[in-house]
Amino acid sequence: MKVKICGISDIETARAAVEYGADAIGFIFAQSKRKITKEKAKEIVAQLPKDVLKVGVFVNEVKEVIEDIANQVGLTHIQLHGDEKDDFCQSLSLPVIKGFSIRNIASLQAIDKFTCEYILLDGPKGKYSGGNGLAFDWSIIPPTAFGGKRVILAGGLNEENILPAILEVNPDMVDVSSGVETDGVKDLNKIKTFITMAKGAN
Hints:
By secondary structure, the chain is α/β, with parallel strands linked by helices. It has a single domain (2-200), classed as Aldolase class I (TIM Barrel). It is built from six helices and ten strands. It has helices at 11-20, 38-45, 63-73, 86-91, 162-169, 188-200, and strands at 2-5, 24-28, 53-58, 77-80, 96-101, 118-122, 150-153, 173-176, 181-182, 185-186. The chain has an eight-stranded parallel barrel, surrounded by four helices. It has a two-stranded antiparallel ribbon with strand order 9-10. Strand 1, helix 1 (11-20) and strand 2 (24-28) form a beta-alpha-beta unit. Helix 1 (11-20) runs parallel beside helix 6. The protein is globular.
């Protein structure tokens, strides 16, 4: 099971996450309490192994800004968490992870219209488009959903529910942010436990 740790904002946490087995590190460039500057993200990316995915998270951003940040920081993937359409996803120079806020079965219908590398199933939107720590009903995901698209499961995941979540959805990757924080700050012990449990689910 691949694991993405999102909302990273310092090199120590990024290094620790990778040491514990994280396959992807997420940097948030949209409005969020975890928002990072491209300068800081570039410093962190420079210290990460080449095989670790470096994902930039954007919400309804213009293409020129996304491409500029991706190029300067050294991103490998672009995660879109707003109202972006498939043609916009296809126009970008890097592989795209398209996020969808899932409330009910009807929320799944739009996914068929997208042909990006990954689709990310997130909980309902709160104050921000993602990272709200809200789960959705995993049982609504059909076993053969989305025409073979690669799936990242997010939304309210933590060390207590990660195993049943993986068993229910069988995603290609799991994504966590607030679920590995204590008082709004990334907690290295929680990160290590989460990664260990997720990878043990295999």
